[in-house]
Design a protein that fits this description.
Layout lengths: L3 E6 L3 H8 L25 H10 L1 H4 L1 H12 L6 E8 L3 H19 L6 E8 L9 H21 L3 E5 L5 H13 L4 E5 L6 E4 L8 H7 L5 H8 L3 H6 L3 E4 L2 E4 L1 H6 L1
Parallel strand pairs: 1-2, 1-4, 2-3, 4-5
Antiparallel strand pairs: 5-6, 7-8
Helix pairs in contact: 2-5, 4-5, 6-7, 8-9
Length: 256
Amino acid sequence: MRPVFFGITVGASLLTNAAKRGHLPEGLDRLRPDDPRQAELDKAPRGALVEYAASNPRECCAELNTVAAVLERWSWMAADLSFVLYASDTGQGRLAAEVIKEALCRVASGFWRGGRCGGRVRVVEGLGWEDKFGEALLRLATAIREDFSEARREGRMPYIVATGGFKPESTFAVVAAYAAGAVGVFYIHETFRRLVELPMVPLQLHGAVAKFARGEADEHQLARELGLDVQHLEAVGLLVEEGGARRLNPLLERLL
């Protein structure tokens, strides 16, 4: 059995479900990032939230529901499990991630007693803020690349758990994880309500893109290789203009 690493995107379903059951004041799960009531989340009953999450993993939130479903099917993964939770730069994101972090190893111990389990939270600067969306995706890609590459160096099998969070962020997290060597993706299908596992996809950017990024080809050579013209590459966001010159979209540069 090889040790396992989970990279987990985090949303607000824990707080929404906790509010429905009286563990959190209603409305705190739906605040805008700049809402003054964000400060109230620092006073939330964290111990009660952890107890709720650890005792009800299949009902409390998308993240623990997925992890519990994975461990129910492959309990050996709980024998040596490490994880990172990617949280938005908001009070909701921090609180949800911290509670899940405290609860997750308790959940894992129910599938493999005496196993090794540990993890941490990475708050992605700007994630969750409308005016920082692009920059935040860059930072998310960088964080995932670093963590998944480290997991591979440690001999761990890295998976992305992508049920939590908004679709644009979780979709980009999947792409970044595959590019960094993820061996699979886990999520709970929102219609089927069951665990879905996507297999390993050895994803690499087109060689022509890498050459362009290294300065070994210009935008016209890149366009010919990809079967488009330069204007189309700009229209679809592959290239951006900066200082009178064209460069690769910074999102793709980070993936490289």
